[in-house]
Specification:
Blueprint: H1 6-12, E1 16-20, E2 26-29, H2 31-36, H3 41-44, H4 60-72, E3 76-85, E4 89-99, E5 110-116, H5 118-162, H6 169-201, E6 208-211, H7 212-229, E7 233-237, E8 243-246, H8 248-264, E9 271-279, E10 282-289, H9 310-313, H10 323-333, E11 338-343, E12 347-355
Parallel strand pairs: 7-9
Antiparallel strand pairs: 1-2, 1-5, 3-4, 4-5, 6-8, 9-10, 10-12, 11-12
The protein binds adenosine-5'-diphosphate.
Adenosine-5'-diphosphate is lined by residues 257, 261-262, 265, 289, 291-294, 302, 308-309, 312, 319-325, 348.
């Protein structure tokens, strides 16, 4: 049985290969390599990679990789570059650089492997685009559905008033109150949608060094009346000097959404404890309440737009289901995380990370 020779592998693989020395001078290249770079085989030996194809191997990022390969024997794999290839046009190439087996009597050689991944990249991009379009369509459908409910109620009850209910004292007040309730919901939805679009546009522009306790005290003072109405106490347990690197209005938005929920879904005379601890370069903030809790199956879904757990929907508390998705969107934009732990009927703790200032 004939063993396949290295020679035939070099020539038959549908991948462009070239072996080079430490100055990137081409020692040998296979046919696809010659075709790709429009090279006459005889001319190959007099050239370095840097001379090929309009100097594209000379671009800073790939040059650095090649230097590190030759100098420090540091291999690299699938480094993507966009090259202009004669006759083929703009292509995305995945380039790998390997140290060839070392024979002490010979000079060290290196193997350059070039794969054309243009169509793979294009189909991955098309799939990502399709996914994002589908997400957008779902979002528009959800928003329309959420807006339609209060609009239908407002329209229905105002029509009833116009066509006679206005004359009936017992209906007049009731119908007007229903209209007011749905108008409030409509304005809350629009406000939350605006916050969501700001969050998704990114708050990264100005990152400030913020004293965490100061922001928390400002907010708990603002939400004090809402908490007192339900007899809820708020305790802050953290190092008062802790500073985080975050956009100020974005931090306020996150804290406001989480505190409002901790009050809204708490029991009467319940407690809220806010804490923070430093873990490496991050600060982990916790907001713990003694409220209704979140069913296990909803623990990750509550961060999706419009998702409300069944036990929250069963309360009289109004909500749009957008507050947590706004908080998550801002945090993800800062490279941070948010998650929750909960025990049904006992309470919930929300955790989120922020970069330490
Ligand atoms: P909203 O409160 O307007 O419904 P959010 O996006 O802020 O919307 O919250 C989504 C859902 O997560 C809520 O409807 C509720 O089911 C659940 N949730 C959020 N915070 C809490 C909490 N502290 N305790 C219990 N459930 C909560």
């Amino acid at each position: 049985m004939n063993l396949i020779s290295a020679e035939s592998v070099f020539e038959t693989l549908n991948i462009s290969l070239a072996s080079v020395d430490s100055s990137m001078k081409i020692i040998r290249a296979n046919k696809p390599f010659h075709w790709a770079f429009n090279l006459a085989p005889l001319k190959t030996r007099t050239r370095t990679l840097y001379h090929l194809g309009k100097g594209m191997w000379n671009a800073e990022p790939i040059r650095e990789k090649l230097h590190a390969l030759a100098r420090d024997h540091k291999p690299f794999t699938d480094f993507e570059c966009v090259f202009e290839i004669p006759l083929l046009g703009t292509r995305t190439l995945a380039i790998s650089g390997l140290v060839a087996a070392h024979n002490p009597r010979e000079k060290q050689t290196f193997l350059i492997v070039v794969q054309d991944v243009t169509s793979r990249k294009q189909s991955a991009e098309a799939a990502a685009l399709q996914k994002s379009e589908a997400r957008q369509r779902d979002f528009v459908a959800n928003v329309s559905h959420e807006l339609m409910t209060p609009i239908t109620a407002i329209k229905g009850y105002s029509e009833a008033l116009v066509s006679g209910a206005l004359e009936l004292p017992n209906k007049r007040l009731k119908f007007t109150q229903i209209i007011e309730k749905h108008a409030d919901r409509l304005s809350q939805l629009v406000e939350d949608l605006l916050h969501l679009s700001t969050a998704e546009a990114g708050h990264k522009k100005s990152v400030d060094s913020v004293l965490l306790t100061e922001k928390i005290h400002q907010l708990t003072a603002d939400l004090g009346p809402m908490a007192r109405k339900r007899g809820i106490s708020i305790r802050v347990k953290m190092n008062p000097d802790l500073r985080v690197a975050v956009n100020k209005p974005a931090l306020r938005q996150i804290l406001q959404n989480l505190f409002q929920n901790a009050i809204k879904y708490n029991r009467v005379n319940g407690r809220i404890v806010v804490g923070a601890s430093v873990v490496g370069k991050r600060v982990v903030v916790t907001i713990q309440d003694t409220g209704i809790g979140i069913p296990k199956e909803d623990l990750t879904k509550i961060f999706d737009r419009f998702h409300r757990a069944s036990n929250a929907r069963a309360t009289t508390e109004r909500g749009t289901g957008l507050g947590l998705s706004i908080a998550k969107s801002i945090l993800v934009g800062h490279g941070c995380r948010i998650w929750a732990e909960s025990e049904l009927g006992k309470g919930t703790t929300f955790f989120f990370t922020l970069p330490k200032a």
